[in-house]
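User: structure tokens for this one?
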Amino acid sequence: MSPEPPPPGSTGVDESPGVGRSAGAVGSTGVDRSGVARGGRTVLACLAWLLLWHLTPGLLANGIGTLVSEDASIATLVECGVALIVLAVLLATHRRRNTVLFARSRLMWLYALPAVLALVLPLHYGLPLPVGVYIFWMTVSVLWQNYLTFGLLQSYLRDDLPAWLTIVVVTTTFWLGHVVALPDQFGPGNPLASLPIVAMGAVFALLRARLGTLHLLLVLHLTFYFIFA
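Assistant:
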């Protein structure tokens, strides 16, 4: 019995994420062109992430804010402003992905937790920056880090990679971003310092893959910063 033909308009090829979309992807040289293209897009996405990652407010001791002022508060606010401008552009150009990342959910009620913690933060705050600057800085930084990494990067990688490999690549890239930007803290000489970063990257990537949205990630990240300030 001959196989049933595909329905009209169908290619008969599995078009799920991470699966080759063309039956003719292998050329005369035996090279899987679709696989090479997916690999190229993966590398490009990671490099773009690494470039933008260096705009994370407060990440670098000699960040762009220090070009404006030597005052730590002013430098931090300048870097937050730059991140917000870039973030606005990214949000405006990724509206389709944003409908998934920020979809309405019952998890949104959890934002009450970091909000309350921010209100009581002055009662136990002990860092040099003014508490108001710290709260603004952490809010911008957390939104920036999570949207850039577990939002956009993970979404782009998932277009071409299976779920498990996407989580591995996102976790590894997140860790490498810290190693490149802060080699004294997370370089090869301090392997134990890297463990929390790797663990956080893996857990957040898994949560993002499971839930689809960024709400819980933002809540957990903000809660950590507001408790341990």
